[in-house]
Amino acid sequence: MRACRIAGILFVVCLLPMLSLVTVPALSDTEELDPEEQLQEERRFRMVDTQIEARGVRNIRVLEAMREVPRHKFVQPRQLRAAYDDRPLPIGHGQTISQPYIVAFMTELLEPKPEHKVLEVGTGSGYQAAVLAELVSKVYTIEIIKELGESAKERLEKLGYENVEVKIADGYHGWEEHAPFDSIIVTCAASHVPPPLIKQLKPGGKMCIPVGTVFGPQYLFVIVKQEDGSIKSKSVLPVRFVPLVGHD
User: Fold this and answer.
1) Is the pLDDT score of 28 beyond 70?
2) Staple partner for 88: which of 96, 114, 232, 246, CB 3.0–4.6 Å?
3) What's the confidence (pLDDT) of residue 245?
4) Can you tell me the mean pLDDT for 58-87?
5) Residue 60 lies inside a defined structural domain of this protein
6) CA-to-CA distance for 5 and 244, rounded, in angstroms?
7) What is the CATH number of the domain that holds 92?
8) pTM for the model
């Protein structure tokens, strides 16, 4: 199977009138955002408050990463106004950037630590890799669509994510050169859990992967590799992802 072609308030009380404001960090005297960037930042903080934290994501570091990464830099220009909407968005080549909540939820399931090394299968626009890069030491991400992989690499470099390495390849086979990984995240639906990924997962590590078919049910699974090499898996959520295709 070839790797993925991928493809989810504080209330401040004022005297007159009473307004509900999204919590945004105060700018220092020397720090200024242009009006468009200020608007996008406000939308991003609202997204975290209303779409992510309100739905039960509690990991403080994950919430801060979602506030930090500018999702509007990872969408197509015509999708700019929808960058912080509660839905996936097309990024070209039949692929999507995942719904913000799903990105946060899957990231939290991995329990990322600052010292971790993570493999992502399905780079897409690079958004999930950027979120992970805020949380771990190193992110290795694989994209099979050359145009997407190259543009994601350029985008991540421009935004200063020096701890992300992008590879154009079939992610079904993982990235053996850099294994084992503390965690692995797959951002498209596989018909089964790829054995090479299991092999490259460190004992004690976690994998988050959607499993199912294009037209049938899909479920998000958390795979845990025990210290003795045995595997435990748990279905945590019904989902809908683009398929991991090409290798049977």
Assistant:
1) no
2) 96
3) 59
4) 97
5) yes
6) 6
7) 3.40.50.150
8) 0.85
Which listed residue (98, 125, 151, 183) is catalytic? 98
Residue 232: which domain range?
35-238
What lies within 8 Å, CB to CB, of 61 at 6+ separation is 112, 134, 135
Specify if 234 maps to a domain. yes
Instruction: Name the pLDDT band for 246 (thresholds 50, 70, 90).
Output: low
The reported pLDDT for the residue numbered 244 is 81
Q: Where residue 15 falls among pLDDT bands split at 50, 70, 90?
A: very low
Q: Is 129 inside any structural domain?
A: yes
